[in-house]
C-alpha cells in the first residue's frame, strides 16, 4: 500500500475509532431517541457503515451487497428522524458486527483500487474522502444527540488555549473580486464547486465571533421582547416558542448558567455564543446595528489571499489545523475563549473563522453557477432554495477532514441543537 493509501487507511481508522467512542454507552441509551430532532445513536452508527457499503463496496468496487435488506432502514431520505425509533434497526452488537464487516472489505478495496484512474469516484480517493467526511459529520451529529440527552459523563473534555483581550472589533475587507468555491480540493463536495469569481463591495466583518457576554447585553436590553430586531418569520417563531435565551441556558438570579453534556456551569462571557438559531443571530445583528455576512463575504474574509490572489485552504494557509491554529476535532467539548488563536487569523485579520462554532450567514443555500450534482442529488441539490440558511466554518466538534474555507453546511433557521454561533458584518458607508 503506497503512502497516499496509508493516509486514507489511517483516516478511516481514526474516524471509526471516534464513532465507536461516542457509542460506548449502555444499549438503552443507544437505542433511545433523546429528541425528535435526532436519530437513536445506534441508527447513526449502522448508517455510516451502510453508506460506506453503498459507495465504496457497491458503487466504486462493484461488490455484491452484503445486507440489501437494511438499505431502506438506513436511507436518510425515506424516514424522518422523528420516525426512526420505530424502524427495525440493528441492535448495538449487531450494528458493530455489521460495520466491522464492511470496514474489512473496504480496506481490501483500498489496497487494490487504482486511485489514479479515470473513474471520478476513484480519482484522488474521492469515494474514501466521501465516506470519511460523511462519518465525521455523523459523529458531530452524535455529539449533538449526547448533548440533548442531558446525561453526564458521556463526552470527554480537554484543555484549550487562553483567550486574549483587546484588538479591533472589526476588520475591513476591501471591494474587489475573489475566487469563491474550489476546483482543486480533491475531496470537496459538489456544493463547493465550481470555483467562480465573485465581485464583493467593501465591508467590515467582526474580527471574532459574537461572545456570550455581548449576547447577554442584547438579552439584558430586551432584545428577545422587541419585534424591531426580528424578521416577521423570526418574531412569529419567537412568540410561538417562548424562547428567551440560547438553548441550554437558564437564569438563576442575576446569573446565567448552561447545561453542557450533563454539567451545569456558569456561562463564560468570553466564549463564542453557541446554540442559537438563525433568527436569534439575525435579531442580535440588527440590534447591534449590523447584519449577518453573506456567504460570499464570509468566505472572502476567511480564505482569500489578496496579495497572492488565490484562495487558501484554511484561513492561515495550507498547513493542517494544529492546536495553535484552530479548535477542531473535539479537542475539548466547547468553544475556545475569544482571541485564543491569533496564529489562525485570515489574511484580513479575522480570527476563529474555522472551528469553535458554525457561523450563520445571511444567505440561502443555493448551487453555484455551473453546479453539477456528484455523486448523487440528495447530498446537496435537493436542499437548494429558500428554506435552508448557510452555515460556515465548522465547530469544535467538526474534524479537519470536514472543515475548510470552502466547506458549506446548511440547516433550517430554527435549528439550535447544533453547535452554532455567528459573527456580524456591515456594509461600507456609501
What does this structure look like?
- The chain is α+β, with helices and mostly antiparallel strands and 430 residues long.
- It folds into two domains: 147 residues, Four Helix Bundle (Hemerythrin (Met), subunit A); 274 residues, paralog of FGE (formylglycine-generating enzyme), CATH 3.90.1580.
- It is 30% helix and 13% strand.
- The protein has nine helices and 14 strands.
- The strands form five sheets. It has a four-stranded mixed beta sheet.
- A hairpin with a 4-residue loop joins strand 8 and strand 9.
- Helix 1 packs antiparallel against helix 4 and helix 1 runs parallel beside helix 5.
- The chain is globular, with a radius of gyration of 21 Å.
- The mean pLDDT is 96.
Key terms for this structure?
430 residues; paralog of FGE (formylglycine-generating enzyme); 2 domains; four-stranded mixed sheet; three-stranded antiparallel sheet; globular
Describe the strand arrangement of the main beta sheet, using strand numbers: 12-11-10-13
Question: Helix/strand/pairing class, anyone?
Answer: alpha+beta
Tertiary shape = globular
| Assembly state of the chains shown | single chain
Amino acid at each position: 500500500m503506497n503512502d497516499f493509501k496509508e493516509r486514507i487507511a489511517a483516516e478511516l481508522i481514526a474516524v471509526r475509532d471516534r464513532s465507536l467512542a461516542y457509542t460506548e454507552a449502555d444499549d438503552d441509551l443507544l437505542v433511545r431517541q433523546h429528541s425528535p430532532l435526532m436519530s437513536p445513536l445506534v441508527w447513526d452508527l449502522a448508517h455510516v457503515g451502510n453508506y460506506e457499503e453503498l459507495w465504496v463496496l457497491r458503487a466504486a468496487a462493484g461488490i455484491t451487497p452484503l445486507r440489501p435488506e437494511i438499505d431502506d432502514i438506513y436511507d436518510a431520505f425515506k424516514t424522518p428522524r422523528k420516525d426512526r425509533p420505530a424502524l427495525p434497526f440493528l441492535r448495538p452488537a449487531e450494528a458493530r458486527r455489521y460495520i466491522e464487516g464492511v470496514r474489512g472489505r473496504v480496506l481490501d478495496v483500498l489496497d487494490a483500487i487504482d486511485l489514479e484512474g479515470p473513474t471520478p469516484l476513484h480519482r484522488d480517493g474521492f469515494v474514501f474522502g466521501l465516506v470519511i467526511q460523511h462519518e465525521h459529520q455523523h459523529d458531530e451529529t452524535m455529539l449533538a444527540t449526547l448533548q440533548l440527552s442531558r446525561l453526564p459523563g458521556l463526552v470527554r473534555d480537554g484543555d484549550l488555549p487562553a483567550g486574549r483581550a483587546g484588538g479591533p472589533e472589526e476588520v475591513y475587507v476591501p471591494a474587489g473580486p475573489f475566487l469563491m468555491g474550489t476546483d482543486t480540493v480533491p475531496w470537496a463536495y459538489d456544493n463547493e464547486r465550481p470555483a467562480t469569481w465573485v465581485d464583493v463591495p467593501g465591508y467590515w466583518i467582526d474580527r471574532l465571533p459574537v461572545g456570550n457576554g455581548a449576547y447577554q447585553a442584547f438579552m439584558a436590553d430586551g432584545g428577545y421582547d422587541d419585534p424591531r430586531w426580528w424578521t416577521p418569520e423570526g418574531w412569529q417563531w419567537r412568540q410561538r416558542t417562548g424562547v428567551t435565551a440560547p438553548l441550554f441556558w437558564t437564569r438563576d438570579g442575576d446569573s446565567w448558567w448552561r447545561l453542557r453534556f450533563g454539567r451545569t456551569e456558569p456561562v463564560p462571557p468570553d466564549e463564542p455564543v453557541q446554540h442559537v438559531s438563525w433568527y436569534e443571530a439575525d435579531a442580535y445583528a440588527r440590534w447591534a446595528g449590523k447584519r449577518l455576512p453573506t456567504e460570499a463575504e464570509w468566505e472572502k474574509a476567511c480564505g482569500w489571499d489578496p496579495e497572492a490572489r488565490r484562495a487558501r485552504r484554511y484561513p492561515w494557509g495550507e498547513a493542517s489545523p494544529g492546536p495553535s491554529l484552530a479548535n477542531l476535532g473535539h479537542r475539548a467539548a466547547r468553544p475556545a475563549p475569544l482571541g485564543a488563536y491569533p496564529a489562525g487569523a485570515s489574511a484580513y485579520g479575522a480570527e476563529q473563522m474555522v472551528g469553535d462554532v458554525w457561523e450563520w450567514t445571511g444567505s440561502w443555500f443555493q448551487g453555484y453557477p455551473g453546479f453539477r450534482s456528484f455523486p448523487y442529488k440528495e447530498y446537496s441539490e435537493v436542499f437548494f432554495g429558500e428554506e435552508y440558511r448557510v452555515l460556515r466554518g465548522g465547530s469544535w466538534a467538526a474534524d479537519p477532514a470536514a472543515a475548510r474555507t470552502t466547506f458549506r453546511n446548511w440547516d433550517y433557521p430554527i435549528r439550535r441543537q447544533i453547535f452554532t454561533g455567528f459573527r456580524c458584518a456591515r456594509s461600507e458607508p456609501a
